[in-house]
Amino acid sequence: MGRNLKLVHYSLAALTLAALTGCPASYGDDDDDIYGGLPADNSGYVGDPDEVSIPPEDVEDALCEDAPAGSETYFVSADDSNSQAQPAWIRAAIEAGTSWSGAIRPYEFLNYYDFDYGPGSELRIEPQLRVHDDGLSLLVAVVAPDKALTERRPLNLTFSLDRSGSMGGRGIDGMKHAMRAIAAELQEGDTVSVVSWSASQVVAMNSRAMSGPNDPALINLINGLDSGGSTNLQGGLQRAYEIAAANSSSSSLDRVILISDGGANVGVTSADLIAEHAEDGESDGIYLAAIGTGSIQEQFLDTITDLGQGSYLFVDSAAEAQRKLRGPEFLASLDLAARDVQLDITLPEGLVINVFSGEEISTNPDEVRPQHLAPNDAMLYHFDLVDCGEAADWADREISLHVEWLEPTVGTPMSADLTVSVEQLALGAADQVLKADAILAYTNELASENPDLAVVAAARAAAPNDQDLIEVERLLTLMGALP
């Protein structure tokens, strides 16, 4: 067994100091994690951050006292799926002046917002480091190659559409917005099947060859969607996988696209049992994507797509559908550039992780699930670090990064490596890590962790026209966190 941290934006310092002093940290029930007090299922923060008040100097002292002797390698997962629903869902709630529930997943916000690493034709590693008063921020991006819409493989899409009564109004509207955006990106040679369901399933379209964008038969089907009845989600998803498997081709990219609010009240309603179809399909190359609409069961849909290793979006408007399902984002949501991507990072002696804002981290690679990466996209791994050594030694202390993946069509093993000194990183560009720090300050505010929001102003000043940062600042203002 390795040192399995499995952190979802937890402070290692708080947990380490609690272990050293005997003070309760209130981060959930104990499990096998070496720092204790973390949910074994990565379900998120369950305690009250105000119950732990640790002076900054004690945080650094505790981390440095417990620091590994020598360098240490960590295997990391930014997100088991390309989940991006929570930022859009919470934004809608803030704009409507309503509340939300559930743990904040910071990595979804890094997935959702755009980071610019420039063009590239090969998968590559791009690290950035920012030195600030509280320590070091390290952002590591595994950047996928660019791909034009005309370069993609033919798609075999099977829609599993929730038409139950709970989808009435906003749910059906969001479904139509999402499907119209997808229909506009389809090309001649793509095939589409549609299973609609409430208590039972109806195969409304089976392996129809698309004539091109906005195929008339598909548009007519979309326009006629309505809702009513109970929700047999398991039956609708199972039928979609059966059709997708029957229509699968070695030359096509196969996707099951579930569009639902995530309710399930008829048939099998356990998320794990429903997601078995996603796991079985993933092993056969049929990948799951989920689009939540209406009053979603947000955690439920996230669980399914985590197990299916596909994208997870929330669409509540035509604008959001355009934002995430048109142009290069269409491929980032539905295509595949690399399978089973796994990154490991080796930190030099004295450089210690305080907070990792991803889904899994461990010294044992078997305890971290590989991810899939889409073209026109990047996996982002964010670390808050404490340096227990001397800045004067940065030129001699190196961070090593190694990524492995499988080529998506034939599964050829691939890898890339990068070793860089702390000094080189400290002197290099920091625009993307500054943006990430601002976004994570926003997520900390959502989680009531009382962050220093000055980094948002700094990021805005550095990139005054960045639309994502403008949005973050606007939402923080609506929340009353900024004047």
The Cα radius of gyration reads: 22 Å
> Helix count, per DSSP?
15
Task: Name the structural class.
Answer: alpha+beta
Count of domain modules: 2
Oligomer: single chain
- End-to-end distance, in Å? 49 Å
What does the overall shape look like?
A: globular
Biggest sheet, open or closed, and with what strands and sense? 6 strands, antiparallel
Which percent band covers the strand fraction? 15-25%
Unreliable runs: 1-54
Number of E-state strands: 17
Helix content, binned percent: 25-40%
- Average pLDDT, rounded to a whole number, is 85
Describe this structure in words.
This protein has 483 residues and is of the alpha+beta class. The chain has 2 domains: 1-75 and 95-147 and 338-405 and 433-483, no CATH class; 149-334, Rossmann fold (3-Layer(aba) Sandwich). It is built from 15 helices and 17 strands. It has helices at 12-21, 56-65, 85-96, 106-112, 170-185, 216-223, 233-247, 271-283, 298-308, 318-325, 328-334, 422-427, 431-446, 454-462, 467-478; strands spanning 10-11, 72-77, 124-132, 135-143, 155-162, 191-197, 201-209, 253-260, 286-292, 312-314, 338-347, 351-356, 360-362, 371-373, 378-387, 398-406, 413-421. Strands 2, 11, 13, 14, 16 and 17 form a 6-stranded antiparallel β-sheet that branches. α1 (12-21) crosses α2 (56-65), α13 runs parallel beside α15 and α14 runs antiparallel to α15 (467-478). The longest helix has 16 residues, at 170-185. It is globular and about 65 Å long.
